[in-house]
Amino acid sequence: WLQANVNSSHQWCTQKVISEVDLPSDITVGDLAPADFDITRTRTFRTKLSTNADGNGTERAQITQDQIVYPNHIGTRLVNDSNIFRLKWRGDEDDKLAFASGAEISWDAADSPGGSTFHLNYSLRKTGCGG
Fold it and tell me: What is the pTM of this model?
């Protein structure tokens, strides 16, 4: 589960946010949330990730987080069939932005997974936001 915030201020607008987790190579990545979708208006949105440990869980579990999403586009994916989990938002907004995303991961019970690194990249521009 990855949460990221960008709070542009002093007449700066956020145009793009990319948050990434470089997951260990010795894990399996399952479902991702949220799915890619276009945002036509500012609204409350619930990111929801259901998990079952790659079919090995005894029960299905779920994690959710509500947030406000702003137009234009948001989505998650694995980068170039790797284990880099990326959330990307595109838009033009001067409000504080918050993002919740998740990836279901699993690994062999006999082995603990390797470590992860996290990255947050964003693009800003001065004045004249469209949001």
Answer: 0.88
